[in-house]
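Shall we go through a protein fold together, starting from nothing but its sequence? Label the sequence line and the structure token line clearly, so we can match residues to local backbone shapes. Would you write everything just below, so we can both look at the same thing?
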Amino acid sequence: MKRLALAAMIAGAFATAPVLGAESFSLDVRHTFPSFELSHLGYSIQRGRFNTTAGKITLDTAAKKGTADITIDAASVDTGFDKLEEHLRGEDFFNVAKHPTITFKGDKFTFEGDKVKSVAGNLTILGVTRPVTLAASYFNCGEHPMAKKKACGGDFTTTIKRTDFGMKYGVPAVADDVTLRIQVEAIKD
């Protein structure tokens, strides 16, 4: 009888214990704008961003695992200059008619405590996929004051060679090395 009562107490404790494991988050599209910067003729650093991004993130801080699945609308490129954006959407650069999206899919997360320090995965631009590691210069999770749900966000950076993805126009005058920044805010599903 004592064993039965003990078993019932243990089962009850597990039934009310919080479930640990991966948490799923959706990107907050109002606060996630991947950007890029590169040297132009050696005179200045030119910058642009993408205004439309979607995706999902999963985090399991206890197991030190996660996944990232981010899709960027290449046609949403924004530099503040209409003629340049038209050129960037064309065949010389993003060729959005043929390759409408840029994607990042990562599943190799490194953590320091509960904070993500980097995410390694595959970046696809112009239909070409290459491995990249996005380093976190900032990462934080907490209760979102408006959504009243858990939210996580960070600022991630990597440098790529655009010619590795088949984007060769203007090299070397327009730099081959491009710094990509993906700032992310995501709200728990």
